[in-house]
């Protein structure tokens, strides 16, 4: 059979859309490069929908599930 060879790396989207949760409730999404470091993902959360919800609160914990979601816990 002639033709091009299958390359699985070409079937993966580079940017991924992460769900942003605050206290376990979905508050928005953000698009970041695939396999971004956790610190880069948390820094990208200056999203217009998320920033007002975090204003004046202290971030206690950021739970990052790689390429899936970010859950922010404020105290």
Key structural traits:
single chain; about 80 residues; Ubiquitin-like (UB roll); 4-stranded mixed sheet; about 15% helix; about 40% strand; elongated
Structural class: mainly beta
Shape: elongated
Broad CATH class: Alpha Beta
Query: According to CATH, what is the topology?
Result: Ubiquitin-like (UB roll)
Please provide a written account of the structure.
The protein has 75 residues and is mainly beta. The chain has a single domain (12-74), classed as Ubiquitin-like (UB roll) (Roll). It is built from two helices and four strands. The protein has helices at residues 38-43, 51-54, and strands spanning 15-22, 25-33, 59-65, 69-74. The protein has a four-stranded mixed β-sheet with strand order 2-1-4-3. β3 (59-65) and β4 (69-74) form a beta hairpin. The longest helix is centred in the middle third of the chain and has 6 residues, at 38-43. It starts with 14 loop residues before the first strand and ends with a strand.
Provide a brief overview of the structure.
This protein is mainly beta. The chain is built from two helices and four strands, in the order ββααββ.
List the helices and strands and how they pair.
Blueprint: E1 15-22, E2 25-33, H1 38-43, H2 51-54, E3 59-65, E4 69-74
Parallel strand pairs: 1-4
Antiparallel strand pairs: 1-2, 3-4
